[in-house]
Amino acid sequence: xxxxxxxxxxxxxxxxxxxxxxxxxxxxxxxxxxxxxxxxxxxxxxxxxxxxxxxxxxxxxxxxxxxxxxxxxxxxxxxxxxxxxxxxxxxxxxxxxxxxxxxxxxxxxxxxxxxxxxxxxxxxxxxxxxxxxxxxxxxxxxxxxxxxxxxxxxxxxxxxxxxxxxxxxxxxxxxxxxxxxxxxxxxx
Length: 188
Hints:
alpha+beta, three-stranded mixed β-sheet, 3 helices, 15% strand, Nucleotide exchange factor GrpE
């Protein structure tokens, strides 16, 4: 081999060595890129978990707020209508008082008895009013199925159609809730 060929081979080896060194020099950069990608993937997974946890927390908080509001509404309702059971039990007694007060007094003793019953009746009605009980207006009013219970229908020229003509049993409301609807006769 000639001297020139040897020198060319030597130069080729050096070029190959430089190329190999460049590849090996680039390899650590590739490792760094891989590490950065892995860190980026881990970071994005952690961010996803954080977002998921935040969403779960917000949903739980909203559920708790809704639960608290629902409990407050139920407690207010219980307080508002706490006397409903007692009032429902007292209404038949009130009806009986009103029936008894409608009798004709023919002697002084009966008149005095009726006066005493009227005082008790008035006291009972006042106590019910303080609790928020009101009688439902019926006669002359338009029939409302939420407030009235029609037990009869009659044709009456003095009344328009669907008007309450007569009340058989008084109805009562406790604040805004109907405790007992009025039993009525309605015109056709």
